[in-house]
Design brief:
With 418 residues, the protein is an alpha/beta fold. It contains nine helices and 19 strands. It has a domain of 163 residues: FAD/NAD(P)-binding domain (3-Layer(bba) Sandwich). Strands 6-5-14-15-16-13-17 form a seven-stranded mixed sheet, with helices on both faces. A six-stranded mixed sheet has the order 8-2-1-12-19-18, covered by helices on one side. The chain has a three-stranded antiparallel sheet with strand order 3-7-4.
């Protein structure tokens, strides 16, 4: 008596080897290795060849309450956070059981690629994707047209394509800011840092005419840290302007004394209430920042990418999934996006004092609640409590006018970190 034939694996193509693409590929592999029910997966990950399309090494930060899937790649973690107001008044918090954690992209990529290489139905290709089209052979799915590093055409057919490439243009928005930054990895000539405390926002820097600015310090050892200058505003600065700001902050504010800059990172993250289209076609969806994973009011992306990857994997793992459009889960809840839109409008118009707002938020609210809210994991009651602690007049005025504002084109950006 013959057994039931095993169903063919579900063919998937993932475009992009950054946080979103690698996280989804890794989540799919772990689903297969755990013997979960439903379809198995054939995964092709398409990474850009060496050149301008490949991102520079970068840092991702997030908070969690225990060992996670990428524990081996965690560079550092902090159990205490500090917010410093413009007048030097400090708010320190220990948001147990949550910890603030750092991943360097190089360690994360090495870990995930090792896992992918061990899976028999995963392949990683270097190619430049030109476009994705519906299949024309009468079968459902999508066809990826690409060029290999030698310029030869490459065609990949898949049931579903998950695309993490940045959109060609930013979505229409009522408010469009950038979180832009430049950071130094520094080594000081003597111990200057508390390795157990991360400075999440230090507002003792000159504030721009529009938006807000702060320092950001993630200690890696008593004499090593990532020190960044960050702005929430409409336009990035020049490299010399960032460098002047960093010299002023490390010398005049932090008083670090002699130091060596051992590495640099720079980037810009969209902070917008624009709606990123997740589904491009029935078999072609966006993931990562392109799929709306970046939290509008904070720029945090990594944790939402993990939620998005789990949701896609769970949907694909159901037996009926091959007969449905590709899953395109929303990385953030509607109520959180609505609150972010109001906050962005209030910041953009100058109705609220940004440094005071964030300092008071951490002063008046338990840190764990604030972090859960920023991560999109707060309960409705926690969200209400945080809303009531905001400046009611400016926020209410911003909320009332938002539906009346047109959505306009805004400059596009390339995602970086956190």
């Amino acid at each position: 008596m013959r057994g039931t034939p095993e169903a063919a694996p579900l063919a998937l193509v993932i475009i992009g080897g950054g946080a979103a693409g690698l996280s989804l590929a890794d989540c799919l592999v772990r689903h297969d290795l755990q013997g979960a029910g439903g379809p198995r997966f054939d995964v092709t990950l398409v990474e850009a060849p060496e050149g301008p399309l490949r991102p520079a090494p970068r840092t991702w930060c997030f908070w969690d309450d225990g060992p996670g899937a990428y524990e081996e790649a965690v560079t550092a973690q902090w159990s205490r956070l500090r917010i410093t107001g413009p007048d030097g008044d400090r708010v320190e918090a220990a948001p147990a059981p949550l910890r603030y954690r750092m991943l360097r992209s190089t360690a994360f990529e090495e870990l995930v690629r090792t896992r992918l290489a061990a899976h028999p139905r995963v392949r990683v290709l270097r190619a430049t994707v030109r476009h994705v089209r519906a299949r024309t052979d009468g079968r459902s799915g999508a066809r990826v047209h690409a060029d290999d590093p030698a310029g030869r055409p490459l065609i990949l057919d898949a049931r579903y394509v998950f695309d993490s490439r940045p959109p060609a243009r930013a979505p229409l928005a009522r408010t469009a800011l950038l979180q832009h930054f430049r950071g130094w990895f520094v080594r000081t000539d003597r111990p200057r840092f508390d390795p157990g405390t991360a400075d999440l926002m230090d507002f003792r820097v000159p504030q721009p005419a529009h938006g807000l600015a702060f320092g950001y310090v993630l200690p890696l050892a008593p004499d090593r840290a990532l020190v960044e200058y960050t702005e929430f505003s409409r336009h990035p600065l020049t490299v010399p302007a960032y460098e002047r700001a960093l010299r002023s902050y490390t010398g005049g504010v932090l008083g670090l004394g002699g130091l060596t800059v051992e590495g640099v990172e720079q980037g810009a993250i969209p902070m917008t209430d624009g709606r990123f289209p997740r589904r491009i076609a029935p078999a072609h969806v966006h993931i990562g920042t392109a799929g709306g994973a970046t939290r509008p009011a904070t720029g945090y992306t990594f944790a939402a990418v993990q939620r998005q990857s789990r949701a896609i994997t769970e949907a694909l793992g159901r037996p009926a999934a091959p007969h449905r459009p590709a899953p395109a889960p929303a990385p953030h809840r509607r109520r959180d996006l609505a609150m972010d839109a109001v906050l962005l409008r209030a910041l953009d118009t100058g109705r609220i004092d940004g440094p005071r707002f964030f300092t008071d938020l951490f002063r008046r609210t338990p840190a764990a609640q604030v972090l859960r809210f920023l991560d999109g994991a707060s309960t409705p009651l926690e969200g209400l409590r945080i809303g009531l602690r905001c400046p009611v007049g400016p926020m209410l005025r911003s909320a009332v006018e938002l539906p009346l504002l047109p959505r306009r084109a805004a400059p596009g950006t390339s995602p970086a970190h956190p």
